[in-house]
């Protein structure tokens, strides 16, 4: 009985192997004309790059429009907040950005974020008007204008689109090989009468390593984009200090927002001016640097300005 069962398993394995080899041959025959008529590598790369960029831009505009609709925000007119608009105009005059629309919304936590392209918009939670002083509010606006000035959200969305395209192409190239290698490994294991041994064979390990390469590539490039996002947050802080000359105001605004925020702001977390982190891994996967790091950098700016002021005062004596 055992011999009969093993013989049947071997026959199934042999048939399975023939099916996989036949499928590989058919795929080769079908793809050969496509390969022979392929465009130049440069042209193919340009087409792929251009398509990824266009899709990224379209995705960005669609996501922005959907976000605006979901916020149920209202425009904050000049008549309702003349002082805030006056400060906004002063910042815009110093920066390479059009005047954005100010939108008032009920966010999960007191916060602000910039959305859209062109002039864009800055979404403000209503509670910020009770939390922040005018100078602190101005520093916060400077931070969000810095994001609009360099189109950070658009750049990151396009970057994610490029990553998805790259990983998808690698996966597309490896998929037939992975399927063939895995199928042959399983078929040979059946022929040997030991179906579970396929994953321990060199063919099984090759399939596993190929899948790990695709996953690792996507993860590594995603980490690079997240790292870029954190650097842009710090750059926005620096730009806000540059145009306002008030690192203390921005530091105080961040402290107040952090103290008033709840642990789970929901799906809008990555858009906010801060990102809370609980571990090294969460910091690595965060779009924002730790709040304490940002505040410390601003405090160092204050101390540096104080030292330069004292040195200048001593030089004048």
From TrEMBL:
Keyword Membrane on entry: yes
Source organism superkingdom: Archaea
Cofactors, names only: Zn(2+)
Organism annotation: Haloarcula taiwanensis
Spans through the membrane: 7-30, 42-62, 166-189, 209-229
InterPro entries hit by this protein: HtpX_protease (IPR050083), Peptidase_M48 (IPR001915)
UniProt family annotation: Belongs to the peptidase M48 family.
Protein name stated in the entry: Heat-shock protein HtpX
Species lineage: Archaea, Methanobacteriati, Methanobacteriota, Stenosarchaea group, Halobacteria
Sections of the chain in a coiled coil: none
GO biological process: proteolysis
Keywords, comma-separated and alphabetical: Cell membrane, Hydrolase, Membrane, Metal-binding, Metalloprotease, Protease, Transmembrane, Transmembrane helix, Zinc
Details of cofactor binding: Binds 1 zinc ion per subunit.
Residue ranges of every copy of the Peptidase M48 domain listed in the record: 80-301
GO molecular function: metal ion binding; metalloendopeptidase activity
């Amino acid at each position: 009985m055992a011999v009969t069962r093993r013989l049947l398993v071997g026959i199934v394995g042999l048939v399975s192997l023939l099916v996989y080899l036949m499928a590989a041959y058919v795929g080769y025959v079908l793809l050969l004309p496509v390969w022979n008529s392929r465009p130049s590598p440069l042209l193919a790369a340009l087409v792929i790059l251009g398509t990824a960029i266009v899709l990224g831009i379209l995705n960005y505009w669609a996501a922005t429009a959907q976000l605006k609709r979901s916020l149920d925000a209202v425009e904050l007119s000049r008549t309702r907040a003349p002082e805030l608009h006056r400060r906004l105009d002063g910042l815009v005059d110093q920066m390479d950005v059009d005047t954005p629309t100010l939108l008032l919304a009920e966010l999960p936590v007191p916060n602000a974020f910039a959305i859209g392209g062109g002039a864009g918009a800055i979404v403000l939670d209503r509670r910020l008007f009770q939390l922040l002083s005018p100078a602190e509010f101005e520093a916060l606006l400077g931070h969000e204008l810095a994001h609009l000035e360099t189109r950070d959200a658009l750049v990151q969305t396009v970057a994610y689109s490029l990553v998805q395209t790259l990983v998808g192409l690698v996966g597309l190239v490896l998929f037939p090989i992975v399927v063939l290698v895995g199928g042959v490994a399983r078929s040979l294991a059946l022929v040997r009468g030991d179906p579970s041994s396929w994953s321990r064979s060199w063919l099984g390990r090759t399939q596993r390593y190929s899948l790990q390469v695709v996953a690792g590539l996507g993860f590594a490039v995603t980490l690079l984009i997240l790292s870029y996002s954190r650097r842009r947050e710090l750059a926005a802080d620096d730009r806000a200090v540059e145009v306002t000359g008030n690192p203390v105001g921005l530091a105080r605004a961040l402290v107040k927002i952090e103290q008033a925020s709840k642990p789970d702001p929901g799906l809008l977390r990555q858009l906010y001016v801060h990102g809370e982190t609980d571990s090294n891994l969460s910091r690595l996967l965060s779009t924002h640097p730790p709040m304490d790091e940002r505040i410390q950098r601003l405090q160092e700016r204050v101390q540096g300005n104080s030292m330069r002021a004292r040195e200048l005062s001593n030089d004048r004596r």
